[in-house]
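Appendix C reproduces, verbatim, an entry submitted by the partner laboratory led by Prof. M.T., so that reviewers can inspect both the input and the predicted structure.
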Amino acid sequence: MPLNRSGEKLTERRDRVVIDTGVLVSAFAFGGMPEKAVKKAFAEADLYISPELLKEYRDVPLALDAEGKLDSTQLKALIAGLATFVTKAIMVRPRKRLFLCRDIEDNMMIECCFEANADILVTGDKDLLDMKILPFHLKILTPRKFVIP
Protein backbone atom coordinates (compact mmCIF):
# COMPACT_ATOMS: atom_id res chain seq x y z
CA MET A 1 0.00 0.00 0.00
CA PRO A 2 1.35 3.46 -0.87
CA LEU A 3 2.52 5.73 1.93
CA ASN A 4 2.38 9.50 2.25
CA ARG A 5 5.40 11.64 3.18
CA SER A 6 4.87 10.91 6.87
CA GLY A 7 4.97 7.17 6.28
CA GLU A 8 1.21 6.74 6.91
CA LYS A 9 -0.91 4.54 4.66
CA LEU A 10 -2.81 6.48 2.02
CA THR A 11 -6.52 5.87 1.93
CA GLU A 12 -8.83 6.74 -0.90
CA ARG A 13 -11.46 9.37 -0.24
CA ARG A 14 -14.88 7.76 -0.09
CA ASP A 15 -17.78 9.34 -1.95
CA ARG A 16 -20.15 11.38 0.17
CA VAL A 17 -23.67 10.13 -0.56
CA VAL A 18 -27.20 11.20 0.34
CA ILE A 19 -29.98 8.71 -0.39
CA ASP A 20 -33.56 9.81 -0.99
CA THR A 21 -36.25 8.43 1.31
CA GLY A 22 -38.06 6.77 -1.59
CA VAL A 23 -34.96 4.76 -2.47
CA LEU A 24 -34.55 3.64 1.14
CA VAL A 25 -38.21 2.63 1.40
CA SER A 26 -37.97 0.63 -1.83
CA ALA A 27 -34.67 -0.94 -0.77
CA PHE A 28 -35.79 -2.15 2.64
CA ALA A 29 -39.44 -3.00 1.91
CA PHE A 30 -39.22 -4.34 -1.66
CA GLY A 31 -35.57 -4.99 -2.65
CA GLY A 32 -34.42 -4.85 -6.27
CA MET A 33 -32.09 -2.19 -7.66
CA PRO A 34 -32.69 0.25 -4.77
CA GLU A 35 -31.49 -2.45 -2.36
CA LYS A 36 -28.35 -2.97 -4.46
CA ALA A 37 -27.72 0.78 -4.45
CA VAL A 38 -28.07 1.00 -0.66
CA LYS A 39 -25.76 -1.99 -0.16
CA LYS A 40 -23.17 -0.39 -2.45
CA ALA A 41 -23.46 2.90 -0.56
CA PHE A 42 -23.04 1.10 2.80
CA ALA A 43 -19.89 -0.62 1.54
CA GLU A 44 -18.24 2.16 -0.45
CA ALA A 45 -19.45 5.59 0.69
CA ASP A 46 -19.92 7.91 3.63
CA LEU A 47 -23.65 8.44 4.13
CA TYR A 48 -25.21 11.73 5.20
CA ILE A 49 -28.56 12.72 6.67
CA SER A 50 -30.11 15.87 8.11
CA PRO A 51 -32.70 16.38 10.85
CA GLU A 52 -35.40 16.97 8.20
CA LEU A 53 -34.51 13.72 6.45
CA LEU A 54 -34.49 11.90 9.77
CA LYS A 55 -38.02 13.16 10.44
CA GLU A 56 -39.12 11.97 7.00
CA TYR A 57 -37.53 8.55 7.64
CA ARG A 58 -39.66 8.34 10.78
CA ASP A 59 -42.90 9.61 9.23
CA VAL A 60 -42.97 7.73 5.92
CA PRO A 61 -43.20 4.16 7.32
CA LEU A 62 -46.04 5.24 9.61
CA ALA A 63 -47.90 6.82 6.69
CA LEU A 64 -47.38 3.78 4.46
CA ASP A 65 -48.62 1.52 7.24
CA ALA A 66 -51.69 3.69 7.87
CA GLU A 67 -52.47 3.58 4.14
CA GLY A 68 -52.15 -0.23 4.10
CA LYS A 69 -49.30 -0.13 1.55
CA LEU A 70 -47.01 -2.44 3.54
CA ASP A 71 -47.62 -5.78 5.18
CA SER A 72 -46.21 -6.38 8.66
CA THR A 73 -43.07 -8.12 7.33
CA GLN A 74 -42.31 -5.21 4.98
CA LEU A 75 -42.93 -2.67 7.75
CA LYS A 76 -40.55 -4.47 10.13
CA ALA A 77 -37.90 -4.76 7.41
CA LEU A 78 -38.30 -1.06 6.56
CA ILE A 79 -38.00 0.10 10.16
CA ALA A 80 -35.00 -2.16 10.83
CA GLY A 81 -33.32 -1.04 7.59
CA LEU A 82 -33.87 2.65 8.32
CA ALA A 83 -32.54 2.21 11.86
CA THR A 84 -29.38 0.56 10.51
CA PHE A 85 -29.00 3.27 7.87
CA VAL A 86 -29.33 6.08 10.41
CA THR A 87 -26.72 4.54 12.72
CA LYS A 88 -24.22 4.47 9.84
CA ALA A 89 -24.99 7.97 8.58
CA ILE A 90 -23.32 11.24 9.51
CA MET A 91 -25.70 13.98 10.65
CA VAL A 92 -25.35 17.41 9.09
CA ARG A 93 -27.41 20.45 9.98
CA PRO A 94 -28.05 22.57 6.91
CA ARG A 95 -27.39 26.23 7.65
CA LYS A 96 -28.59 27.53 4.32
CA ARG A 97 -32.10 27.31 2.87
CA LEU A 98 -32.05 26.53 -0.83
CA PHE A 99 -34.91 26.99 -3.26
CA LEU A 100 -33.69 25.14 -6.33
CA CYS A 101 -36.10 22.30 -6.97
CA ARG A 102 -39.48 22.68 -8.64
CA ASP A 103 -40.94 20.50 -5.84
CA ILE A 104 -40.35 22.64 -2.78
CA GLU A 105 -40.46 19.53 -0.53
CA ASP A 106 -37.32 18.21 -2.27
CA ASN A 107 -35.19 21.21 -1.35
CA MET A 108 -34.38 19.55 1.99
CA MET A 109 -32.56 16.82 0.05
CA ILE A 110 -30.51 19.42 -1.85
CA GLU A 111 -29.79 21.32 1.40
CA CYS A 112 -28.47 18.13 3.00
CA CYS A 113 -26.27 17.48 -0.04
CA PHE A 114 -24.94 21.03 0.04
CA GLU A 115 -24.12 20.96 3.76
CA ALA A 116 -22.52 17.51 3.50
CA ASN A 117 -20.53 18.54 0.42
CA ALA A 118 -22.01 15.39 -1.10
CA ASP A 119 -20.70 13.95 -4.32
CA ILE A 120 -23.82 11.94 -5.13
CA LEU A 121 -27.56 12.04 -4.46
CA VAL A 122 -29.27 8.70 -5.16
CA THR A 123 -32.94 9.18 -6.00
CA GLY A 124 -35.78 8.02 -8.17
CA ASP A 125 -37.56 11.37 -7.86
CA LYS A 126 -38.07 12.93 -11.29
CA ASP A 127 -38.06 16.48 -9.88
CA LEU A 128 -34.56 15.89 -8.51
CA LEU A 129 -33.32 13.87 -11.49
CA ASP A 130 -34.38 16.65 -13.87
CA MET A 131 -32.24 19.25 -12.08
CA LYS A 132 -29.40 20.18 -14.42
CA ILE A 133 -27.97 23.37 -12.96
CA LEU A 134 -26.86 23.59 -9.34
CA PRO A 135 -24.63 26.18 -7.68
CA PHE A 136 -22.38 23.36 -6.43
CA HIS A 137 -21.04 20.05 -7.76
CA LEU A 138 -23.45 17.13 -7.27
CA LYS A 139 -24.23 14.04 -9.34
CA ILE A 140 -27.91 13.14 -9.12
CA LEU A 141 -28.25 9.46 -10.02
CA THR A 142 -30.93 6.80 -10.12
CA PRO A 143 -30.21 3.68 -8.09
CA ARG A 144 -29.38 1.84 -11.33
CA LYS A 145 -26.86 4.46 -12.48
CA PHE A 146 -25.28 4.48 -9.03
CA VAL A 147 -24.88 0.69 -9.07
CA ILE A 148 -23.90 0.41 -12.74
CA PRO A 149 -22.03 3.63 -13.63
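The chain has one domain: 15-147. Additional entries are available on request from the coordinating office.
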